[in-house]
Structure formats: structure tokens, C-alpha cells
Amino acid sequence: MTRVPKKVEQRIKAELRKYQKILEAARARDLNESDTAIIVSNMLADIFGFDRFTDITTEYSIRSTYCDLAVKTDDKIHFLIEVKAIGKDLRDVHLRQAVDYATKEGVDWVILTNALEWEAYRVLFQKPIEHEMVFEMNLLEVSPKSADVVEKLYLLTKEGIKKSAIAAYHKE
Hints:
Blueprint: H1 6-29, H2 33-46, E1 56-62, E2 65-73, E3 76-83, H3 92-105, E4 109-113, E5 117-124, E6 130-138, H4 147-154, H5 158-162, H6 165-171
Parallel strand pairs: 3-4
Antiparallel strand pairs: 1-2, 2-3, 4-5, 5-6
Helix pairs in contact: 1-2, 1-4
């Protein structure tokens, strides 16, 4: 089990509660992909602790195409995030798109999300390129009080990245 610092745990719990209300309203309004990406970007700042101006890049350019979001610290990309509209089901074709971006950019981790469903994958650079799901969760179906939920969300936080938490979790 990953040890989540108390301050980070408190932030995750409080912000997840807040965003569950926002996500309910967004789902009811059936937001498009662009508006969903704005919510995801704000979640990255508020729940996951990234600086919205220096750590999060929107429409990240990868060889004449664009990935919705890239999360980076110290000029190193940690995750590429492919966002779909909040009402859209996440499909294999979307995952292939995200993995293709990661392959072209040499990034080990991809997140596929519609703001409700979050799927984290490790990209395996072998022939052929493969991927492994690390975890998935629906943020409207989880309790912010759950230690398991907090632990999994911690893996994607700025603090978790500094400790290589997702890599350690993936090895387990």
C-alpha cells in the first residue's frame, strides 16, 4: 500500500467531493469534449496538485497532431491525457490514439478520461508496442473517504510523481 501524505489526502478528499457535484452537473448538461477538457485541466490543478500554468499543457503538439493534455514537471512529460466528451464511452480506439501519442513522444504513462471515468495505462515499449491498465475508476461511483480511492488518485498527483508512486504501484 502506498503511503499518502496527510496534506495530499485531505486535498484529494475535499476536492473530489467538490468535483463530484461539478461532474454531475456537467453530465446532465452533456458537455462537449472541449468543455470536458477544461474540467479535467482544473481537476489536475485542484485534486492532483499541478500548477495550471506551468505543469499542464493543453493541445500538446506531437508530430503534426495534438494530444488533449500533457502533464509535465521540470520539462519532463509524465502523462499524456486523452479527453473525450463527458457523455462519451471510452473505447479501444481512444486508447490506441493515446498510446500512439505516447509512443511517438516516448512517454510511459497515458490517461484516458471523459472526466467521470479515469483509466491509467503503462505503455510498454517493445515490439509490438503494448499497454497495461494500471487502474480505472468512475469518480461518481467512488467515496472520497475510501483509502483505496485516495491511494489510486495519489498515484497521479504531483507529489506521487515525485515519489514514482505509479511505477511502484504498477510493479506490485
